[in-house]
Amino acid sequence: MKLPSPLVYKIFILTFLLFFSTLSNSQELSDEKIRSLIEEFKTLHRGPYLKIEWFCDDGTKRDSKDPCPDKIGGIQHASYKPIVERLQEENHIFFADILAYTDKGDFWDANNQHSRLKQYQLNQYLMNIDNGWIMEKAQFYRGAIQSEDEEEWGIDFYNWLLLDNQKIEENFFLIRQSLKNIPHSGSDQTAQKIRNLSKVIADNNSRFMDVRTKLHSQPEESDIKLVKNFREKNSDKLSKTELQQLDSLQNSLQKFYAPIDLNWFAQKATVFPKDSYLRNKLENFSTNAANRENNSILIENAANLMCDIRTQLTEVQSTSDQLVALDISLKLEEIIFRTAPEWKPENLREQLDKIYALSLASASAGFVEWWEWNSVDHYLQLQQTDEITLENLQQKLTIARSQVEWSASMVKAIYGDVVEKYEAFEPKANSFIDDRLRSSIALQLGKSVSELGDFIAEKASLENKVFKLNNQSSIRGLNPGYALGELEIISGTSTEIDVNPNKIYIFQKPPSDLKPIAGILTVAEGNLVSHVQLLARNLGIPNAVISAENLEQLQKYEGEKIFFAVSEKGTVVMKEADDMENEEEDLFASEEKQKEKINVPTEKIDLTCQVPIPLSQVDASDSGKICGPKAANLGQLKMMFPEKVVDGVVIPFGVFRQHMNQKMPLQEGSYWDYLKATFAQAEQMRENDIPEEEIELCQLDRLFQLQTAIKNMPLQEDFKTYLAESFYDNFEQPLGNVPVFLRSDTNMEDLPNFTGAGLNLTVFNVRDEAKIVQGIKDVWASPYTERSFKWRQRFLENPENVYPSILIIPSVDVDYSGVMITKGINNDNENDLTVAFSRGAGGAVDGQSAETWLIDIEKGAQLLSPAREASYNRLPTEGGLTKKYSSFDKPILSEKNINAIRKMAKDIRKILPERTSKENTGPYDVELGFQNDKLWLFQIRPFVENKNAKSSTYLKSITPTIDNEQLISLETNL
């Protein structure tokens, strides 16, 4: 046998190494590696750049000393290091982007939710607040970036982008915000520079923190003197760099608050065609502003002109004129931002006028979509009247507060993805969203709304008592209840949080799979009808929404044991445990807690049915008998509305129990024997006075073993045969040919005092036979997960008696889906409907920021909150989930959809008591969806609220009786 030559060996080794290197380079860089790169770039004189080169128009590159020929043309700037290019290709992360080096379509990055553009903005922010960030040394690398080339590229980019009116309509907020960062003629970043400089100075000098807080929360012209006084008082303690930074900050403030140059607007007007709409409006504005009597007129006129620009932008024929119009809009926003503190309303009428003007300006700046603004505009406008009822004034406050919240949620929705991505390797990115909000009109609007809230609280003798925080009127209770526990704040994203059931948590947004906790506060309300919210409402877990400013003030109480209570009307009390009164301490007596336990009825369970059943053969009377309430009630709906409910298959309790009677591997008895022994052992441990924490850990360990064993349990052959036949009979397709949902449906759900919403598994859109078989076992195992067990263990007397059935229904690839509660949740009105929808499948129930409406059962609908989730799920016929993305420029529900929901609610209210029992009058929790405007029903269950919380004497005592008909003069002094 002839051996290969040494050359062949070498070729083989080189080929292998090259292949291995290619494999290695095809992987994303870890967050740890990116962190180390950032620190390395900071120390390098070229930072993330490789060298200066000529980039010729024919696509070739030349050395820095070898310019492109004149007949070809080109520009000179730095090129990226190979590791930076790898970050772009593998991680889709873009550091130190040179715009002149970038394709316009690649920068717009539409296929990735405009990630690259947003990263450019985030990079600019980090560079401003962190001494150049990765460009700390490279910012002095001469020739790396040519400002005139960047500005020329920026103009070209906007001329390219603004050609497409659909892009403008779908991305107005992002496009307008990007103008603050992308170089182009007319850009002015003075306001941003003020904020960034103040943060840098405060980060390096704690004595400046009070000044920085003032600049960030209540900026006004007097801050110039504040900075000047600080410099004079501390000059001997400051470094040369700090003195320079203070001088730069003072100069920027003086520039920002310099007298308004109205000639600027007159000059910009000449850009537009003569007698055009915007030209006339601009000329009128500059003339009226010059003759203004006070700041209120200036702000109102500026807000109206911003409105004209937003509504007319797509009608402007020239992209260069559109760019000028957007720059004017930014200048107007700056004027309103700096002038708003100087408008000090003397009476209630002026306060409402100011709130309306600031709300209009915020919407015109894109913080609120235009259809959203049109839905609330008429509520905020002040009618020709001299008096207003307290109830109507409270409604205006609610709507005005919503404009602040919608504005904040817009910033989070647009930039949250890139901030979350960067937070993993650069924690400083976390403050970007807050910076965008605090530099916007939303800051001034929030202050005015808070002042109105304080006025109303005084008139109604209604006030929150949350420590001694400022602006408490922005705090709102969502679910009534009371709790005692340690306060913990979860910053950033809240996925995979190991919560403690005895703690009170503050979330930016609660996770959809939240385990039991004592109390919840959220910075964003999220969704009134998500599973988490429904569980909280059902079980009397106090839940409130707070502002970002409130969160900042609550930081100092983290780790403290506190008392937290929310009344049915939304009043919130929070204090340190040591300050509790006797009445509050009595709420936590052990016998009080024992009354809240709920017993799961098991006496009527029929385990003799051990084959799949058609959905059409079950009804509400079978709930808790052969199957859970999901299947029973959906079967009832199928009888009532056969064209709106899909066919389905029910796997009853008996099939589960039959399989649980099989011998469990590595155990002496069956799966069921192991389950019973688990709870018997727990009772024995209690008799031996073993601490409950140890008992729970032991139970969870054994249940985890049971859960694992069930997932690997063999399905009986007879059952698999019956299952295959049921697919033919009900879906007219063989098993494996039709995508289906597998929904857990236990006997512990929808009890009179316990909802169990979302505790167990739903398998989405699975088609493959093997995956369906495995899905059945996974659903059977899901009641024994830690989360499901803890909710049951805490609130049920007999949590071991859980029997899961399974509802199998074919997938409906709905355009949007959601939940309807057949009452007003916030106003407790039986004539209203609370409806929340999200795009795609599985909408609203998992806590997405859903589009929520309060719908009058007869006519009229009020938007409570818009959707702020760009991504959604579609259900392809091959199974699985496909992620899609949408903009927010159009509502999810049309008027036609709302009318269909209204009719369905009427029919359910009328027919369900007739077909079941007279006592079954609701309210109901209904899951539904629309596909091509056809309404589909997927579930109906009772809407369960906590009666103890609603009837608590203490909770009633913290909400005074309010005279809603009380008349208040609009001339009332503030």
From TrEMBL:
Pathway: Carbohydrate biosynthesis; gluconeogenesis. The keyword Kinase applies. Its cofactor is Mg(2+). This is Phosphoenolpyruvate synthase. It catalyses: pyruvate + ATP + H2O = phosphoenolpyruvate + AMP + phosphate + 2 H(+). Its EC number is 2.7.9.2. It is an enzyme of class 2 (transferase). Catalyzes the phosphorylation of pyruvate to phosphoenolpyruvate. InterPro entries: ATP_grasp_subdomain_1, PEP_synth, PPDK_AMP/ATP-bd. Keywords: ATP-binding, Kinase, Magnesium, Metal-binding, Nucleotide-binding, Transferase. It comes from the Bacteria. Residues 626-952 form the Pyruvate phosphate dikinase AMP/ATP-binding domain. The keyword Magnesium applies. Belongs to the PEP-utilizing enzyme family.
